């Protein structure tokens, strides 16, 4: 069964994902270490680190349009190289690097909490944060996407205020000498500050949620990197211009940027900056924990880690083991408390992985030169080569300046290699007590020449089987017709970057009765089931409708009443906006066979359009058709009968006519016990009166003794709201 995520994230949300993650660590955690390493030149180091990130960011931007899969850089490298050990080392490094970076965020959080609440020790606050994030992710609790956007916007606003006010407090003498440690100090700081830009890579993992990802993600990557470069460089420059850099190093203070905020804004400025730090580190650690667990989840799915890493708890529907292991790594990093070594090791892992991502881009260009790419890296191959060169230069520089960190990084990678060759082959990929749910790889099927597709949204297990059997009978009688059952798993409208993305990816495997029913149709050549995870069911269904050619949408009847026609209701929205013929079907039984069809036929435009659908249904069931026309005056019966005889001759199946006088609704209901199905056409010119009182067709739906299908036929001109409004007003004027 084809499974996919609905695209609901726009440009602003994509920018907030990138910017929110990249702001946290450098300004609020590593500022003091940066000043100790490079002096005032830390502002140059953070600027150059951002420039270096652009080259690899461009590679991510192209690769995400080629391989839109969960796992990010690990998947890109594995798919490109086809070499299992290289892909494994890349994933191993990303997994541990993301987790270790959380230690930085937790320690920074502890500092800010201790500043505001001195009675809470830094380490206690840091450990409590790790526990909180671990249990929050295990429970699957989601934070509001809107709240995330507000937090990031507030952070940017606070930092902008800091820069604007700080300009008036700068003492340029504090900036000299600009590079007291020489350029080697700048390059060393540049190396571990590079990892603070890894947030731009995280948006690529949410590519299946982003609207027009081939356009949105590349723009989001470049805009977010540019914005963060300006913000970080400005804050670093202002910081060591307000106070001498010697007063901002870890040996003197654990809150360097708060000290500068106090200098320009007093105690209120300090508390405000500390509060911003709490928000930034809290947001960043949640994203990084989920990034780490996402990578280990993808590796376990590829049988590179034990199955427990991809195990999803039946109750919480989260990968508990993967989250716990990532949290243990975070605990270890927090306990070490060495910001410089932790950041250096993390940077070595990230730089190695990002170098391989650039290599992956070059390989893909050679392997698939004709493959269509919505975004192409400019100045290829110069751009990825510069990315590789800069990353390797920074790795060498870090290795020379921080040999203990190099030894740790090499040792960890060595442990991974030993695991790969000695332990992994002996693993049995099964687990007990926890449900393993794999997210299947989806390959785009080559679009065939299809016509007259029948799209059936299904959600209610009591009506799904009947709707699907109905659509299948029609499709079997026609050539090249496909039934597309669409099941939408509706999630709350609170998407928050990686946390929500991972939860949704894992939840895709959780089966319900409708999904299980659709899986049974996968082998049916005329059925093409689609499963969509979305925050908006109407948007998800419409995304399928717009991709098909000449579709017929069949939806189940969910009762009448005013609420059914409110603007937020899916049925109302489909009738109003769907570029397709839309049918609302009320069935008396899921396995019902239609042998006699009653078709109230008025001879107008809508009746003729509905007649095409009636003909398809009759062909599918081999049914007889009765054309019914209810006239106002008995003297019109004969002329109407003659007209209907010509219309009846156009059907493929036997058709008879019936003309009588009286009230349409009363007559149709009265005859309903003689037929298996009533098919009626609904016009497009409804107005507020019909919305309030209900369609006339609704009364037939409620009172008829057989199944009823209401068809709203699509007309590209008459579908327009203004045209419908004009027709409605004209008719009202005539009747008055």
Would you kindly provide a written description of the structure presented here, covering whatever features stand out?
The chain is α/β, with parallel strands linked by helices and 736 residues long. Helix 7 packs parallel to helix 10. The longest helix has 46 residues.
Please name the defining characteristics of this protein.
alpha/beta, 736 residues
Nutshell version of this structure?
By secondary structure, the protein is of the alpha/beta class.
Write the layout of secondary structure elements.
Elements: E1 2-5, H1 11-28, H2 31-38, H3 42-66, H4 73-81, H5 84-116, H6 122-139, H7 145-167, H8 182-193, H9 199-202, H10 213-242, H11 256-301, E2 311-312, H12 320-336, H13 339-367, H14 382-401, H15 403-423, E3 435-436, E4 454-458, H16 461-476, E5 483-490, H17 497-507, H18 513-520, E6 530-534, H19 537-545, E7 552-556, H20 570-577, E8 581-586, E9 596-600, H21 605-621, E10 624-631, H22 637-648, E11 655-661, H23 664-671, E12 677-682, H24 688-693, H25 696-703, E13 707-712, H26 721-735
Q: Helix fraction? A: 55-70%
* Helix segment tally: 26
Q: Biggest β-sheet, characterized?
A: 11 strands, mixed
Overall pLDDT, averaged? 77
Shape: elongated
β-strand number: 13
Q: Which strand order do you get reading across the main beta sheet?
A: 1-6-5-4-7-8-13-12-9-10-11
- The secondary structure category is alpha/beta
DSSP strand (E) fraction?
A: 5-15%
- CA(first)-CA(last) distance: 55 Å
Low-pLDDT stretches: 1-6, 141-145, 428-450, 493-499, 507-511, 561-568, 684-695
The value of Rg in angstroms is 32 Å
């Amino acid at each position: 069964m084809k499974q996919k995520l609905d695209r609901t994230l726009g440009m602003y949300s994509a920018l907030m994902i990138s910017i929110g993650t990249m702001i946290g660590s450098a300004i609020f955690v590593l500022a003091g270490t940066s000043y100790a390493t490079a002096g005032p030149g830390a502002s140059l180091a953070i600027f150059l680190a951002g420039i270096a990130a652009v080259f690899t960011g461009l590679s991510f931007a192209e690769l995400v349009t080629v391989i839109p899969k969960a796992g990010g850089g690990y998947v890109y490298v594995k798919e490109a190289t086809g070499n299992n050990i290289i892909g494994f080392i890349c994933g191993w490094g990303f997994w541990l690097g993301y987790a270790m970076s959380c230690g930085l965020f937790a320690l920074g959080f502890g500092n800010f909490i201790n500043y505001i609440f001195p009675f809470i020790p830094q380490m206690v606050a840091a450990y409590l944060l790790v526990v909180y994030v671990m249990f929050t992710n295990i429970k699957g609790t989601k934070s509001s996407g809107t709240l995330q956007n507000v937090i990031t916007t507030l952070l940017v606003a606070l930092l902008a205020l800091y820069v604007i006010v700080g300009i008036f407090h700068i003492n340029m003498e504090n900036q000299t000498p600009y590079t007291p440690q020489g350029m080697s100090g700048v390059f060393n700081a540049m190396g571990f500050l590079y990892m603070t830009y890894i947030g731009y890579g995280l948006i690529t993992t949410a590519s299946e949620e982003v609207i027009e990802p081939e356009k949105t993600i590349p723009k989001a990557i470049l805009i977010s990197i540019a914005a963060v470069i300006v913000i970080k460089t400005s804050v670093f420059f202002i910081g060591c211009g307000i106070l001498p850099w010697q007063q901002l190093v870890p040996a003197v203070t654990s809150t360097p940027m708060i000290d500068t905020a106090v200098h320009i804004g007093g105690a209120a400025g300090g508390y405000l900056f500390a509060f911003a730090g709490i928000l930034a580190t809290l947001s960043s650690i949640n994203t990084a924990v989920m990034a780490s667990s996402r990578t280990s989840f993808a590796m376990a799915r590829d049988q590179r880690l034990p199955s427990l890493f991809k195990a999803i708890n039946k109750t919480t529907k989260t990968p508990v083991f993967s989250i716990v292991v990532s949290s243990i790594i975070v605990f270890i990093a927090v306990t070490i408390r060495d910001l410089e070594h932790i950041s250096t090791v993390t940077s070595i892992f990230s730089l190695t992985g990002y170098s391989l991502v650039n290599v992956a881009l070059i390989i893909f260009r050679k392997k698939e030169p004709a493959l269509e790419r919505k975004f192409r890296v400019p100045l290829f191959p110069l751009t990825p080569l510069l990315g590789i060169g800069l990353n390797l230069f920074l790795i060498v520089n870090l290795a020379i300046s921080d040999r203990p960190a190099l030894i740790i990084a090499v040792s960890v990678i060595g442990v991974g290699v030993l695991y790969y060759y000695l332990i992994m082959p002996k693993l049995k990929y099964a687990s007990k007590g926890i449900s393993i749910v794999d997210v299947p790889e989806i390959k785009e099927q080559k679009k065939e020449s299809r016509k007259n597709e029948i799209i059936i949204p299904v959600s209610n297990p009591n009506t799904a089987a009947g709707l699907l059997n109905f659509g299948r009978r029609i499709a079997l009688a026609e050539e090249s017709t496909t039934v597309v059952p669409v099941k939408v798993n509706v999630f709350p409208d609170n998407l928050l970057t990686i946390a929500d993305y991972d939860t949704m990816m894992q939840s895709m495997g959780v089966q319900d009765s409708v999904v299980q029913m659709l899986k049974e149709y996968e082998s049916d050549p005329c059925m093409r089931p689609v499963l969509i995870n979305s925050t908006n069911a109407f948007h998800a269904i419409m995304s399928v409708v717009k991709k098909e050619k000449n579709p017929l949408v069949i939806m189940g009847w969910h009762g009448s009443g005013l609420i059914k026609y409110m603007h937020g209701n899916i049925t109302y929205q489909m009738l109003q906006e769907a570029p397709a013929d839309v049918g609302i079907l009320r069935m008396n039984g899921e396995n019902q066979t239609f042998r006699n069809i009653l078709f109230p036929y008025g001879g107008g435009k809508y009746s003729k359009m509905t007649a095409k659908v009636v003909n398809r249904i009759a062909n599918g069931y081999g049914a007889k058709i009765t054309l019914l026309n209810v006239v106002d005056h008995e003297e019109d019966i004969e002329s109407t009968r003659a007209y209907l005889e010509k219309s009846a001759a156009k059907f493929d199946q036997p058709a008879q006519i019936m003309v009588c006088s009286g009230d349409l609704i009363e007559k149709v209901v009265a005859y309903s016990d003689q037929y298996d199905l009533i098919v009626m056409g609904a016009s497009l010119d409804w107005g507020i009166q019909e919305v309030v009182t209900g369609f006339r067709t609704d009364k037939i739906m409620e009172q008829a003794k057989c199944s009823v299908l209401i068809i709203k036929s699509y007309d590209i001109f008459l579908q327009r709201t203004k045209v419908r409004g004009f027709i409605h007003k004209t008719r009202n004027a005539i009747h008055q």
